[in-house]
Please model this.
Amino acid sequence: MRQKIVAGNWKMNKTMAEAQALAAELVGMVSSEVNTNTSVVLCVPFPYLPVIKYQLGKSSIKVGAQNCSEHEWGAYTGEVSALMLKSMEIPYVILGHSERRQYFGEDGKLLAKKIDKALTATLTPIFCCGEPLEVREAGNHEKLVKQQVEEALFHLSDADLKKIVIAYEPVWAIGTGKTATAQQAQEMHAVIRKQLASKYGEAAAQEISILYGGSVNAKNAHELFSCADVDGGLVGGASLKSREFVDVIKVMK
Ligand code: PEP
Model:
C-alpha cells in the first residue's frame, strides 16, 4: 500500500521564534487530534532544521528540507548538501519545486543530479513537477509534466524509483488560491502513474506516492485527497497556520 503523506512547505517564512511556536502548536494538536497512518512532514528553512527537529522530538511529525545541492561537498558557498542533511538526520527533501525552477533556473538535468545526491544520502526526495498556466491553456500540460518526470527520474533503477515521492503541483495553482479541480488533479496523477508503469511496471507505479500541491486548504482537501491516485498533499500557505494545517491532515483517513 502506498504511503499517504501530507507535507507542509514553509518556504521562506517565519522568524525562528514564530517557527518554534508553530511547531509547538502542531506537536500538541497532531498528538491530540490526528489519528491516521498518514506521514506528516514539515519542510522548513535550512537554519531552522535542527531546532525544529529537536522540538518535534518523539512526535510522529517528521522534518524535511526544501532543497539540496547537486554537489557532495566543497567550495560551493551558500549551498547545503544532501550529506549535511543526512548528518542532521533530516529524512525528506523537496526537489524541483516550481519556485526553484522559475527563480533559480533549475532544470531537469540539474534535478536529476540533485535526486541522485539525495538518494545517495538516503533522503526521501519529494520531487515536484507541474505546468505553468500558458502550457495548460495550450493543452500541453501532460506533455510537459511527463517530460519533467522523465528528465529527472527515468535514469533511476527500479529500486531507487521506489524511494521517490512525487508532488504534482500545477504552477497556476501555487499560492494563487486557485486550485485544480479534483478531476484535473486525478487526470494528471493517473497520467504520471501510467508513465511510471510504462517504464518501471505496474506494480512499481502503484507503490509510488503522488501528492497534489496548489492552494490546498481545509475546505478543498477532502475532495482532492479522495481521488484514487492522489496520496496526500504538499501544502504551502495553509501549512503556516496550525489550525488550517491540522484540518488538512485530518482529512486523511
Ligand atoms: C507549495 O508551496 O508547494 C504550495 C503548493 O503552495 P500553496 O499551498 O500555498 O499553493
